[in-house]
């Protein structure tokens, strides 16, 4: 008789019963394994260890592997290494609506700490794009376990893999009217006390970084002010740049327009710093309120951004029911919407798609088309002329 688990627990806290740990999984390979793992949990941890130094990637991979492993043992009473093609089709449906909710979804749509008894693998309904991404990650997990000699085959490789078509346009962005509402809300923030003024200038600087720089939230949290530097172009003009270590540890060069440098100066002076950063200065791009010089976490940055969007939405709702649709959209928005907004507004403003591609640090124009390599000086000039924030 198989042992059933009653409630899902995080990977770092769970102990699998012997008959569910995968030692005798029906899909186990009987050849020479390249990893020392003898059970499913150890195999998944070996897969995760490859990306342990990349925090965001690690957390995303762990989340999806965790959901699958827990679903298999709690819902099906099967080890991961016994899952079949048909099981994975059931899991696709499960991702759309994890039932029973009390078992799988956290109360009130909250993300609880992993050690909290109220923690659940889900805290909200997954968007179709998130469901797709989950299956991409799980497919990568199975493929690696096959390559490592742990599994005999990948049950997902039998699925019909349809190429994802590039969407005709980006939908998760703010049009110029809504973007102006966000700026108006930021400018309306209280400024009477030093703390209020610091919060206001931090919001302006943060949204300037997202919009003018097209930065990802991980890039805002993971880079330093010392990455700004100045050099003269062929005409003798001083041009500021921001070196960014971005997704996949790829280095990028973002034009720091005059507007961006003005906002940086305002923010730095408010924090008692010189208007311009020194080369290799370790000050984070965005700081907590007060005297701390430690970088803000991704979660803290996310909270600030969502708070601004919620405030702007609240202002819209005060104008009447006719603005409810716009307010709803703002409440859905996230920091990544600002990156899409930056790309869309650059393209709409007439910037060369090669400039948009290089500013957003896309690998190819295929990623940029929904919103070719131009010389850096021309890219800086065009960005400054055609992509403005106009506070």
Automatic annotation (TrEMBL):
Principal subcellular localisation of the protein: cytoplasm
Superkingdom of origin: Bacteria
Compositional bias annotation for Basic and acidic residues: 374-391
Keyword set, alphabetical order: DNA integration, DNA recombination, DNA-binding
PROSITE patterns for this protein: TYR_RECOMBINASE
Domain Tyr recombinase: 169-385
SUPFAM superfamilies for the chain: DNA breaking-rejoining enzymes
Subcellular location: Cytoplasm
Region listing for Disordered, in residue ranges: 365-391
InterPro entries: DNA_brk_join_enz, Integrase-like_cat_sf, Integrase_catalytic, Integrase_recombinase_N, Tyrosine_recombinase_XerCD
Protein name as catalogued: Tyrosine recombinase XerC
Native source species: Paraburkholderia haematera
């Amino acid at each position: 008789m198989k042992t059933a688990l009653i409630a899902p627990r995080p990977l770092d806290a769970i102990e699998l019963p012997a008959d569910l740990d995968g030692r005798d999984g029906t899909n186990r390979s009987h050849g020479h394994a390249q990893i020392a793992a003898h059970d499913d949990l150890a195999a998944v941890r070996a897969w995760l260890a490859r990306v342990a130094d990349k925090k965001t990637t690690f957390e995303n991979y762990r989340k999806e592997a965790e959901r699958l492993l827990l679903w298999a043992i709690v819902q099906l009473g099967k080890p991961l290494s016994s899952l079949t093609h048909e099981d994975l089709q059931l899991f696709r449906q499960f991702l759309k609506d994890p039932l029973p909710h009390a078992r799988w979804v956290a109360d009130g749509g909250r993300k609880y700490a992993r050690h909290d008894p109220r923690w659940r693998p889900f805290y909200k309904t997954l968007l179709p794009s998130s469901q797709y991404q989950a299956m991409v990650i799980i497919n990568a997990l199975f493929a690696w376990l096959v390559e490592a000699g742990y599994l005999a085959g990948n049950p997902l490789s039998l699925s019909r893999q349809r190429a994802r078509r590039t969407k005709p346009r980006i939908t998760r962005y703010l049009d110029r009217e809504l973007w102006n509402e966000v700026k108006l809300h930021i400018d309306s923030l209280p400024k009477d006390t030093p703390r209020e003024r610091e919060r206001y200038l931090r919001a302006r600087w943060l949204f300037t970084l997202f919009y003018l720089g097209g930065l990802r939230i991980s890039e805002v949290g993971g880079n330093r002010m010392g990455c700004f530097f100045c050099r003269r172009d062929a005409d003798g003009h001083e041009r500021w740049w921001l070196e960014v270590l971005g997704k996949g540890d790829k280095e990028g060069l973002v034009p720091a327009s005059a507007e961006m440098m003005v906002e940086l100066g305002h923010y730095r002076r408010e924090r008692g710093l010189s208007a311009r950063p020194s080369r290799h200065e370790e000050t984070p791009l965005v700081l907590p309120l007060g005297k701390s010089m430690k970088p803000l976490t991704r979660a803290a940055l996310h909270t600030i951004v969502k708070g601004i969007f919620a405030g702007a939405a609240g202002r819209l709702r005060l104008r009447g029911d006719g603005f409810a649709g716009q307010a709803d959209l703002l409440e859905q928005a996230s920091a990544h919407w600002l990156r899409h907004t930056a790309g869309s507004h650059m393209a709409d403003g007439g910037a060369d798609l090669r400039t948009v591609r290089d500013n957003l640090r896309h690998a190819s124009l295929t990623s940029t088309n929904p919103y070719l390599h131009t010389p850096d000086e021309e890219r800086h000039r065009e960005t400054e002329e055609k992509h403005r924030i106009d506070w």
